[in-house]
Amino acid sequence: MEKRVVFRSAWLPYVLLAPQLVITAMFFFWPAIQAVYYSFLLQDAFGMTSQFVWFQNYAELFRDSHYLSSFKTTAFFATLVATSGIFISLLLATMADSVIKGALVYKTFLIWPYAVAPAIAGVLWAFIFAPSIGIVTYYLKVLGFDWNWIIDPEQAMALVVIASVWKQISYNFLFFLAGLQSIPKSLIEAAAIDGAGPFRRFWTIVFPLLSPTTFFLLVINIIYSFFDTFGVIDATTQGGPGDATKVLVYKVYYDGVKAADLGSSSAQSVILMIVVVTLTVVQFRYVERKVQY
Amino acid sequence: MTRKVLLAAFVAAAFGATGAQAQTEIQWWHSMGGALGDKLNELANKFNASQKEYKVVPSYKGSYPDSLTAAIAAYRAGNAPHILQVFEVGTATMMAAKGAVVPVYKLMKDADEPFNPKVYLPTVTGYYSDSKGNMLSFPFNSSTVVFYINKDAYKKAGLDPNKAPKTWKEFIANAEKLKAAGQSCVYTSGWPAWMHIENFSAWHNVPIGTKENGMGGLDTVFQVNSPLHVRHIAMLGDMAKKGLFTYAGRTNQAEAKFSSGECAMLTSSTGAQANIRRMAKFEWSVNFIPYHDDVKGAPQNSIIGGASLWVMGGKTNNAYKGVAKFFSFLSKPEIQMEWHTGTGYVPITMAAYEMTRKSGFYDKNPGADIAVKQLTNKPPTANSKGLRFGNYVQGREVIEEEIEQVIAGKKDAKAAMDDAVKRGNEILRKFQAANKG
User: Fold this and answer.
1) Cα(B264)–Cα(A264) distance, integer angstroms
2) Which in A112, A246, B203, B305 has the greatest CB count within 10 A?
3) What's the gap between Cα B108 and its chain centre?
4) Taking CA atoms, what residue in A is nearest to B237?
5) Is B69–A242 a contact, with Cβ atoms under 8 angstroms apart?
């Protein structure tokens, strides 16, 4: 009983694949190759003169202690965003899964933030936490807490993490909810009859069965925090104060788009690409072993 | 007056059908949003109504860095605008792009339009001229940094509201009194690098960098780690620690803190006046920025910020003729006065300043003339005529990052300013290498 479709034609599969391949080549491979090429060039802003400088752009980056410390900032930021994002959405999903009345409304509201653009999410949170006019700032002040992320590096980091996590919770939530709903109720009921409490049931049955989802989300969230968060950062801290929230991708954006330094920006994006590819490979090789499908 | 203009515009539009084919369009990319953008469109409409051959088409392209980036991309793709508004920190980038731009002095000469750089304030001419004194871009919207005080807060603290501090020593004494009187935010500042490094240096007649602040060549190096700079930044850090200085961010965020009454003193752009006038529910005044009285020759003069108009290369001669005509139109004192009084930017020619003064505008709006007085306080020196550093978008950011480290108490002023110089110089060397051709 072979279920697979077998193409007898020599050219049909390629024709069917062609649109996808063209799009991938045009929007992924071509820009990536361009980035690699530009990373070897030293150009003025208008591209009037262009010199091939081999690895000079890279060498300059690795000589810059601020660029190197940006790796640490990024690692810290990505860990916080990925773990707290996954943890909070898992919590919300388990709770939403057990809600019976009005479940649809509840779920819809939780999925809503996903439709908000990162820059809007940033502005939203920047307003709520704004140093003089923010509503949360006001209540923190009432409680005697001095909130000013404009100059406090730790608070600035907290702000961009909160905004980035909030943006990603809906996405995580959706996958966890689907994962939870695919777990057979009979398994959980059987455990309950055997006398396992809710925590025991969660850790020995639900969580292991969710591990493929969790692993997938871990990879996606790390990629998200590496690449997709510059909108949030640009709308709030713009990398400051000092370079406290200057993650790698924000520096790529700033140097390339705002400062018209294409060579360095391309070199940085190539490095970022290598880092994320390596991380993903490592995750698939080592973390995936612990996943039970 | 406006009715006449409207009528003229209407007539021009009505007859436009016949003349439309012969009209040459001139694209003007700018960064003036909101009320400023409306005012800019008014100028373009007025010019279009004044003649039939050319039509200036302004389009808003986002913030200064955004429109510069857009123009660079457009130039690389071969469809740049005719006129591009570029902020002051982009000046070196534009000047180095020989061939991508047409110098304004050459444009005016080729088109036989009268153009005299001497009519502008010396600080304006100097900022946009090359080392031979040729003006490369057309001054448009200039501002400078001034010092605002909340007179009501002064009264409440038992200080004389009509005596704003002249020196930083007096400033700190007043700040302590304000703090003691329960003022939650005593002093804040917009544009920290522009105020506390660039204008600070000019005001005290000390260099920001070698080679006349970069105007004399690309092989310039930063000198913002001089003892005076370090002392000033250390003072700010110390004030922040004592609660006398509240840092508000790298652009104009501080202005809202002043106009809401939260902060009693503010140093920021002259451009803040329009908003303060509208928002403030208290008496306030505009003053000269403070100086350190033990520095010889201080106060010198402050320097400009804002933007100028650059003419992009690769267009037809006919279009350039139109651009030159438009610039002549913008140079008229009455147009300059209209722009100055309508926007809060500095009148950039002495003629426009005199005209505005005679009109009684400054009597009705006290403080609106402080900026000109400060810019022309003394004839500018090599240290105070402006600055020109390659890729200063990044350079200024480095300085701001280091200042923030001091304010946050993470670094001492000497180390921070040394780092600013070191990191800034690397950016300058890279710019020099990229533009050596």
Assistant:
1) 43
2) B203
3) 24
4) A151
5) no
CA A230 to chain B, closest CA, distance in angstroms equals 16
Half-sphere exposure (CA, 13 Å, Cβ side) for A17?
8
**DSSP class of B272:** G
CA angle B43, B44, B46 (to 5 degrees): 65
Q: Mark yes or no for CB contact B69/A49 under 8 Å.
A: no
Q: How close, in Å, is residue A90 to chain B by CA atoms?
A: 36
Check residue A33 and report its DSSP letter.
H
Cβ–Cβ below 8 Å for A64 and B405: no
Say how far apart CA A178 and CA B65 lie, in whole Å: 44
Nearest CA-CA partner of A198 in A84, A87, A206: A206
- B139-164 per-residue burial string, b: 16 or more CB within 10 A, e: under 16: bbbbbbbbbbbbbbbbebbebebeeb
Which candidate, A266, A242, A257, places its Cα nearest to that of A70? A242
**Closest-CA residue of chain B to A264:** B430
Three-state SS letters, B336-400: HHHHHHHHCCCCCEHHHHHHHHHCCHHHHCCCCCHHHHHHCCCCCCCCCCCCCCCCHHHHHHHHH
Which residue of A152, A240, A257 is in closest CB contact with B401? A240
Q: How far is B287 from chain A (nearest CA, A)?
A: 25
CA-CA distance, B270 to B306, in Å (whole number)? 10
| Structure tokens belonging to residue B331 | 């140079």
AA identity, residue B119: V
- Measured in angstroms, the CA of A53 and the nearest CA of chain B are apart by 10
Q: What single letter denotes the amino acid at residue B334?
A: E
Find the range with the poorest average confidence among A19-28, A123-132, B342-351: A123-132
Please indicate whether, in this complex, the C-beta atoms of A260 and B405 are within 8 angstroms of each other.
Answer: no
Q: Is the confidence at residue B96, as pLDDT, over 90?
A: no
Give the residue among B227, B226, B196, B194 at the shortest CA–CA distance from B407: B196
Both tokens of A210, joined, read: 């969710």
Closest CA to B289 of B193, B379, B231, B371: B371
Predicted pLDDT at B352: 94
Q: Tell me which residue has tokens 């180095």.
A: B96
Distance CA B147, CA B268 (A): 7
Helix (H, G, I), strand (E, B) or coil at B264: strand
pLDDT of A100 reads: 72
Predicted confidence (pLDDT) at residue B12 exceeds the cutoff of 60: no
Question: Average pLDDT, stretch A173-178?
Answer: 92
Chain A residue numbers touching B256 (CB-CB < 8 A)? 132-133
Q: Tell me the pTM.
A: 0.87
Burial environment of residue A216 by CB neighbours within 10 A (0 to 12, 13 to 18, 19 or more): middle
- pLDDT, one tens digit per residue, over A41-96 is 998 888 888 889 999 999 999 998 889 999 999 999 999 999 999 999 999 998 88
Q: Do B240 and A66 touch (CB under 8 A)?
A: no
